[in-house]
Design goal:
Length: 191
Amino acid sequence: MRILFLLVCIALSACVSKPPLSQQSVNTLAHQKLLHQIQHWQIEGRIAYLEGKEKHSANLTWQQKKNDLELDLRSFIGTSVLHLEQNSNGATLEMDGEQYQDSRAEFLLYNLTGWHIPVSALSAWIKGEIKGNETADFAKQGWLSSLNYAGWNATFSGYRNVNNVPLPHNIILSKQQKRVVIRINQWKIKQ
């Protein structure tokens, strides 16, 4: 019984002594390479789109597999707002029982909803990965804290370890009067 008690105490002390992620650090270059290797992932969370007095929000599921993406937006009661897919053949958006196609997801999303969101860039940015042409700043811990690209300003915060990889859980994009806020509740990294 004493051995069991000691093992439980040791296990609990190991959990307590683990430093919070804000006190951990990573090698920036190695972290970016690791993020680039993550090709299959899924997030669950919320997205808000704000432009002027216009405000929209939805529950979000985004699944990425290499260059293919699936994005589902649902109302707070779970009804589908839209389903967006992008692959090598182009983009398809389903909304209000109708299906629309175009060469790029950004075009479909903007033309049907008025939301100007850089979907292609977000597939890397959501992970805190730079694609190469951005002006980026990194936190003292080594992970991405902000970037600028094509008029978009993005900030990344709330990093938590997912499968031993620091990933952001709060992302804010802004460009002129537009703001996109993504709050990630759950990450799944798939093999």
